[in-house]
Description:
The complex is a heterotrimer of chains A (216), B (316) and C (669).
Chain A: H1 2-21, H2 26-51, H3 54-82, H4 94-118, H5 127-143, H6 147-169, H7 174-202
Helix pairs in contact in A: 1-2, 1-5, 2-3, 2-6, 3-7, 4-5, 5-6, 6-7
Chain B: H1 2-35, H2 45-54, E1 58-61, H3 66-85, H4 101-121, H5 125-156, H6 161-170, H7 177-193, H8 212-215, H9 222-246, H10 259-284, H11 293-314
Helix pairs in contact in B: 1-3, 1-9, 1-10, 2-9, 3-4, 3-9, 4-5, 5-7, 5-11, 7-9, 7-11, 9-10
Chain C: H1 5-26, H2 31-57, E1 62-70, E2 73-79, H3 81-104, H4 113-132, H5 136-154, H6 161-188, H7 197-200, H8 207-225, H9 234-240, H10 243-268, H11 274-296, H12 301-328, H13 332-367, H14 383-396, H15 403-416, H16 424-456, H17 473-491, H18 493-508, H19 513-518, H20 536-557, E3 562-565, H21 583-593, E4 599-603, E5 615-619, H22 621-641, H23 649-668
Antiparallel strand pairs in C: 1-2, 4-5
Helix pairs in contact in C: 1-2, 1-4, 2-3, 2-4, 3-4, 3-10, 3-13, 3-17, 4-5, 4-10, 5-6, 6-8, 6-9, 8-10, 9-10, 9-12, 10-12, 10-13, 11-12, 11-16, 12-13, 12-16, 13-14, 13-15, 13-17, 13-18, 14-16, 14-17, 15-17
Amino acid sequence: xxxxxxxxxxxxxxxxxxxxxxxxxxxxxxxxxxxxxxxxxxxxxxxxxxxxxxxxxxxxxxxxxxxxxxxxxxxxxxxxxxxxxxxxxxxxxxxxxxxxxxxxxxxxxxxxxxxxxxxxxxxxxxxxxxxxxxxxxxxxxxxxxxxxxxxxxxxxxxxxxxxxxxxxxxxxxxxxxxxxxxxxxxxxxxxxxxxxxxxxxxxxxxxxxxxxxxxx
Amino acid sequence: xxxxxxxxxxxxxxxxxxxxxxxxxxxxxxxxxxxxxxxxxxxxxxxxxxxxxxxxxxxxxxxxxxxxxxxxxxxxxxxxxxxxxxxxxxxxxxxxxxxxxxxxxxxxxxxxxxxxxxxxxxxxxxxxxxxxxxxxxxxxxxxxxxxxxxxxxxxxxxxxxxxxxxxxxxxxxxxxxxxxxxxxxxxxxxxxxxxxxxxxxxxxxxxxxxxxxxxxxxxxxxxxxxxxxxxxxxxxxxxxxxxxxxxxxxxxxxxxxxxxxxxxxxxxxxxxxxxxxxxxxxxxxxxxxxxxxxxxxxxxxxxxxxxxxxxxxxxx
Amino acid sequence: xxxxxxxxxxxxxxxxxxxxxxxxxxxxxxxxxxxxxxxxxxxxxxxxxxxxxxxxxxxxxxxxxxxxxxxxxxxxxxxxxxxxxxxxxxxxxxxxxxxxxxxxxxxxxxxxxxxxxxxxxxxxxxxxxxxxxxxxxxxxxxxxxxxxxxxxxxxxxxxxxxxxxxxxxxxxxxxxxxxxxxxxxxxxxxxxxxxxxxxxxxxxxxxxxxxxxxxxxxxxxxxxxxxxxxxxxxxxxxxxxxxxxxxxxxxxxxxxxxxxxxxxxxxxxxxxxxxxxxxxxxxxxxxxxxxxxxxxxxxxxxxxxxxxxxxxxxxxxxxxxxxxxxxxxxxxxxxxxxxxxxxxxxxxxxxxxxxxxxxxxxxxxxxxxxxxxxxxxxxxxxxxxxxxxxxxxxxxxxxxxxxxxxxxxxxxxxxxxxxxxxxxxxxxxxxxxxxxxxxxxxxxxxxxxxxxxxxxxxxxxxxxxxxxxxxxxxxxxxxxxxxxxxxxxxxxxxxxxxxxxxxxxxxxxxxxxxxxxxxxxxxxxxxxxxxxxxxxxxxxxxxxxxxxxxxxxxxxxxxxxxxxxxxxxxxxxxxxxxxxxxxxxxxxxxxxxxxxxxxxxxxxxxxxxxxxxxxxxxxxxxxxxxxxxxxxxxxxxxxxxxxxxxxxxxxxxxxxxxxxxxxxxxxxx
Lengths: 216, 316, 669
């Protein structure tokens, strides 16, 4: 039974990643990202409960604090204060994005099968899904021309990494986890600063505007 | 004895479908009105509407061909047969070896093709517009529905609907992640095929935004009654299909003589919940622009495909 | 001698057709005689062939030697289950097409009817020889005659430059394919001394040679069958030919390519490799998707049907590729199921496509129009043609209970019954392949609604359509025959599947015949009854019962009259025929979604034009990506080689002298 709930959480995570990929409205994107983080936290807690691995509880709490509470709050505040366009136009149209997503999912699933066979964790079957989430988030960073979806892509990639780590090895060492969390928060602050500057110069968060600023 | 039971349950299923489909439409309209803080029409309003239409004179355009006159009956027959194939009250139906899940989708497609042809028959701008849009929505929705049914058939190792129900109800309770994907995809397809918001507004009067309504503009009297009834039957069939695949518990097998009696209220309860959900989704969404609809349906299609892939990965 | 009776029957058919053809040549100007007597005779012979074909499918393999051929290399012929199935399909198709031609060719055309009769009968006789050929020489000889006569038939309206161009393109690509086939058979027979298939079957080529053979065969037969990217001649040649010829070409000549691939890859090559099947599957799916998307945006009714043929051939190739894939992994039962699906589709496509094409022939004769934008509302003036075309369109959309649905059903079952390929990557490609096939099926329905709706329904878009007259007697007989074929294939698939079981046993060693036979003739069960079953007759009967009961109840309970009036059209006062959807309009959503598949040139009117003009030209992108670069390279190379041509006698004498010197020096070593 816990195996099945874990599979369900993994499937929901993949579902949410796809939904984020196809989403045009930024506010909904942030809400989906919150749910995404919740899924990761829930599965980490479940694995911690099953394997009596206490430091996984701490990792889960950290992820909850950072990914579900702090960062979405920052992003929402940024979005409201910058008052930019709330819709995203993708670089590549949505059906093509979905098709490429499917191909990435197949590649991820096939890469994961031999690796999962070596692992001894209870959630090893979900490595493929975690890898797929990572690939899809990376693609989200690639095909969006707006800064906010790119940040969210980066953050959900980190979510996927955390999930993969818990799935295969029962979690990364706590020190590593702390370091990654710090890097993520720092990175978000930097990007937030970036967004302010872009807003100042271009009135718009489209990163393609940066392309004009090449060295002459 | 069991042969009589089979034929009886089959006939009962079809009669219940015919009577209950307008009731279901009435219930969805009621829920929608309540959610929008309006006074709801009576639950039997669609029945009264059908009766009124049947008693009216049918006006047919001069440019109509013989196909136009036959087509309401053909579509009605297709939808009735579809309701007969989907197991709602029993898993021992004599029609079940005649048509499996793929044939069911083919049957719905047959109804839809005739509907589109009837819309093109009179040769007005709105009819052909509706036909074009309906086939457009269908070309993505039908594959998505087929992929959902395939996900289920991979789990139950059968495409026959009664075998699917039997298998799912006799397994130990388990959560199938691939069915989670399939469920979302199925809901999206249901909304698209039955002309609900966010794909099409069933209560609109603006012709340029219509898909389904535009196709039945030229029908009147008993033809319009049959078309409205067919649309209700289609919604009923889709909801029953969803119940069959995702919540099949409560459908009795052969050899449970009192199972039929219990099955009716269980079915009614499930349909009521389904109706509330549809009304909720309709009230909470806005209608999509016509060229955002392929994105919506492509998402459904690809979710169904991902569901199948997840099945291959997790074995569930 | 008794067991050679079927062989003699088939010979008799071929000789009979040749005789009819020569009669036509001798009576070249007697159009009415040719049309009313010779073509119905040929239909009768076709009937005999169909019957002989289906009987010999259940019989033994028979071989023989023909007295013609090269010295010491007579033609070997062999009738086995695969040939007899294709002969059966040919019999059905040619009967229907010949019956229709009896009415169609009774009018004067550019080419005299007697000449068309000769070319037609030469073509179908050569196809018979092709299907029973048992050595490479006979095969290629028959292949060449078929290509030549088919080209001659395509340019029947030779006064039109576009038709001549189409014939030239067909001829060119057919011979590029034949060139590859020459190499292919050369490689196959490399260690034999008589190129007979019997000795080729005993060979054991290694992997590399075998792969070369397979891909040469795929390319060579693909040029005839119309796989991507060698389909380029199909949309030109099939519309250019007269309609019965288009019907024959689409329905059967394309299938000779399929026959060739089956013969080479499953019969002559001893083992198959999984990636051959995978590549064939991929090409098949790409062809199918490309064909159906392009057919959705056509404005010429025959080009639409031509692209639809490309789609169906793609589906058949996908089934064959899947079959090879399963066989390579030793899953013979599944390979048999997909091969059965592909072969069933050969028959059902032949039936419905020939029906649709001969329907367009009637429309063309009575209205003179091929452009969808100038047709419409023909159901009132041409009811026979319209109802026949309705059956054809429903079958082409893959709707139950007609023939197109059965093959799709079987193919999808073969995807779903798979317990899993050993290679997990391939296993995950199965849902993708399934998804593509169902998408192609849904788009095919879209295309057929457009085809039938724009031509036969609605209001006539031109004044002259009001004078359209319906098809003649012979044409109606032809329609009826093909309609019976479509419906029969849909309602009685079990008999055909049992015949196909013999074919799959020959090629793969297994078949679904046992499962099918266990359930009786009403029910089609590929595996077990719990997994999947389909009963088309019951389906149709119950459906009709529901419709009729509804009709009776409504009419008897509510006695209400009907009134005729003008169209409602939402109360808009001015509604004329020009306001209906055009063919471009109906295809616009597909054009919007599948933009990258086309090259499109559009002139849009602006709001300020006094005389707004809308022009759109949609071109096959492979011309620009593939063929024009190749043509440019060829011209470039030939211009360089052309430097040798100096047009001076002294230079040519110099070449001769230099060559002589060179040879003498070489021989001296």
